[in-house]
Amino acid sequence: MAVDYAVIFLYLAGMLAMGWWGMRRARSKSDFLVAGRRLGPFLYSGTMAAIVLGGASTIGGVGLGYKHGLSGAWMVLTIGFGLLALSLFFSARISRLKVYTVSEMLDLRYGGRAGLITGLVMWAYTLMLAVTSTIAYATIFDVLLDVPRTLAIVLGGGIVVAYSTLGGMWSITLTDMVQFVVKTIGVLLLLLPIAVVKAGGFGALRDELPTSYFEPLGIGGETIFTYVLIYTFGMLIGQDIWQRVFTARDDRTARWGGTVAGTYCLVYAIAGAVIGTAAKVMYPNLASADDAFATIVTHELPVGVRGLVLAAALAAVMSTSSGALIACATVANNDIWSRLRAAARGGEPAPDAGAHDEVRGNRLFILIMGAAVIVIAIALNDVVQALTVAYNLLVGGLLIPILGGLLWKRGTVQGALTSVAVGGLTVSALMWHYGILADQPIYYGLLASLAAYVVVSLLTPPTDPAVLATWRERLAGRGAPESAGAPAEEADAAPGAHAEAHPGTGDGR
Questions:
Q1: DSSP H helical ranges for 111-148
Q2: Which of 267-271, 359-363, 428-432 shows the lowest per-residue confidence on average (mean pLDDT)?
Q3: What secondary structure, in 3-state letters, does 257-298 show?
Q4: Residues 6+ apart with CB under 8 A from 485
Q5: How far is the CA of 443 from the CAs of 273, 342, 422, 504, in angstroms?
Q6: For the purposes of burial, counting CB atoms within 10 Å of the CB of 247, is it exposed (0-12), middle (13-18) or buried (19 or more)?
Q7: What pTM, to 2 d.p., does this model score?
């Protein structure tokens, strides 16, 4: 395993080096939180694909393929569909708003009174997403180093917290690009063909496995529908995803760069399901389907290649973890702490902070949230239930107010706040009644949230025309604060700039 260890060590050292390099670029709040809003199509596509394809999509996707065959791809497919929908229909408008958080968008749309409660819901979601991603390090480092669970979480989580704290979104963007390349080589170009060949080829898969393994809907229509509600709609509204949209240098980059990333997700979904199906032929009696990825990597891959594929799994987990961590810290600082401080001052504006102080404050919040994530990850056992609670509250509470604000001008702040409260309470009550992993909470929670939003909005006065006028100006890309974005001519001031700046250079546009 010496060669494999060397590959992993070089990968982790590279992540820390990227964090140090990113620190030199993070000179303002915009640089630190949204990479100066400068990313072109190449960087944007790679980092967006990296953030949405985490440990659940890689290790879990292979596990679903092991259990259900090709239809196990549906979980990751719905993630890809959500990213495609976000990119094609909403990302251009989101990018033009020049905000930092989802709650800021809701304040802008509804008149400044929706931010704190939506911030609390979004903070809980991003915190749990970061926690569950961090716990995944335990599985990977157990395969690599056979170390105790706590040490694995501290080791992996400490590296992510270190490079995220140093350079913020610039560091995360650079590390995500490396992670994207490693995942592409490790999973798509190496593990996929090796697994199929080792299993005897596609003909052997069909001969050895039941026909249900090759039915497109074999996983079940109700399961697919639930995936759509949770993951497709979750892609439309999550702070971790929106914060990547905010990094795009223009709305064209957000639209088409995201479309490339969404298409990549669809390919990744099918690859994971095929790898899992091949693992079922080679190891039909594994105790847990989630062991399929580690088993096939450990026993079937040659030295060196094994290290690279394990680095790919580590990359998948790290990209999601770092994206969730900076999203959690951004919400905690901008949507919760800043509002509580403003309330304590009686609504008086805060004294102006210099760019250095803004970066230092956000860096401190990443460090604090990162430490909290590591502690919770060590203490928490049932990560599936924790993540389900987070996604149910996110989609059940925030989907309708967010999409309603983007699509329906008659929606009001009273309708939005009622929708958040009714949807969140309904989901919580039904999870208690039916069980956390049941489908009913999200079904009925969304219906209750929609009914509350429409009814209360129609029963209350329309949103102030001045607020809507400001909203329309921002949606059109006008009236944004001067400090919100970087000058267009600076858009290529990053690695890969020449590939992004010129058409026809293979950047996916």
A1: 115-145
A2: 359-363
A3: HHHHHHHHHHHHHHHHHHHHHHHHHHCCCCCCHHHHHHHHHH
A4: 30, 36, 37, 98
A5: 27, 37, 13, 45
A6: buried
A7: 0.84
